[in-house]
Design brief:
The protein has 245 residues and is α+β, with helices and mostly antiparallel strands. It has helices spanning 2-14, 19-34, 38-56, 61-80; strands spanning 92-95, 108-115, 120-125, 130-133, 138-140, 144-147, 155-163, 168-174, 183-190, 194-195, 201-204, 218-226, 231-235, 241-244. Helix 2 packs antiparallel against helix 3 (38-56) and helix 3 runs antiparallel to helix 4. The longest helix is centred in the first third of the chain and has 20 residues, at 61-80. It starts with a helix and ends with a strand. 19% of the residues are buried.
């Protein structure tokens, strides 16, 4: 609370881009890192680094020190993450929830490669723009799912997008039968109303147990769906298996 209060005071008195504000941000980031709140710490280190960079440039000793803090933290984050599958080149994706560059949200792209050292996908938009994107900001599209929503039961559809605010998938629905690839009707439905098929790669989120939080925002492969429990059996690349809703 003291560190947070210090940030507020310096932002109000000196401005959000003042080096003294960056010092307080760095102090709070270090505290969060010690507490294991790594993603929160990363955001604070990034803000602090950007302030030093804009005030002093990349070669200044203080800027380089903050950069080292940030790189050390990001290494720690990667080491604690489970080894997950990655989407292969050529996979169709939609971009979601970007904050600093929101103009790219809801655009379609193709996976080009994955950088394990930065934990980023390199994707290419259809205007040939290349971007580096975190896995949590991508949704796989053009995959077939089974639909169990009332009114369209026993049908299938093609995922074409995702509404992150409503937590709903945008689906082109097969209005006839499973043996017909004519996807005509667009619908929006929640994850609870669709079934992903075996071997599909899915990004896991929403795990809240302390021992499982590290598995969030990682890709795993669906092994099967258990109708009795309503759980998916999934497997990570390192062999870790679990059941999730």
């Amino acid at each position: 609370l003291l560190f947070q209060r210090s940030i507020q005071i310096k932002e109000n008195s000196m401005g959000v881009s003042h080096p003294d504000t960056a010092i307080s941000l760095n102090n709070l980031a270090s505290l969060y890192q010690d507490q294991g709140r790594l993603e929160e710490a990363e955001q604070l280190f990034l803000r602090s680094y950007e302030i030093y960079l804009s005030n002093y440039g990349p070669k200044h000793l203080d800027t380089r020190k903050i950069q080292q803090n940030l790189e050390y933290l990001q290494t720690e984050i990667r080491e604690k993450q489970p080894k997950s599958f990655v989407l292969p080149p050529g996979t169709h994706v939609k971009i979601i929830d970007l904050i600093s560059t929101p103009q790219y949200n809801d655009q379609s792209a193709l996976i080009k490669s994955f950088e394990f050292d930065t934990d980023r996908y390199i994707i290419q938009l259809f205007d040939s723009t290349s971007l580096k994107i975190k896995p949590k900001n991508l949704v796989q599209i053009n995959i077939i799912v089974d639909i169990k929503k009332e009114g369209v039961n026993e049908k299938e559809g093609l995922v074409i997008g995702f509404d992150s605010e409503k937590k709903e998938y945008k689906i082109k629905c097969n209005s006839n039968n499973k043996n017909n690839n004519n996807y005509e009707n667009n619908i929006s439905i929640g994850q609870q109303d669709i079934l992903f098929r075996g071997s599909t790669l899915v990004r896991v989120e929403g795990l809240v147990d302390d021992d499982l939080i590290k598995f969030n925002n990682q890709y795993a492969r669906i092994l099967k769906f258990d109708k009795e429990s309503g759980d998916y059996a999934i497997e990570y690349r390192d062999g870790t298996r679990m059941g999730i809703k």
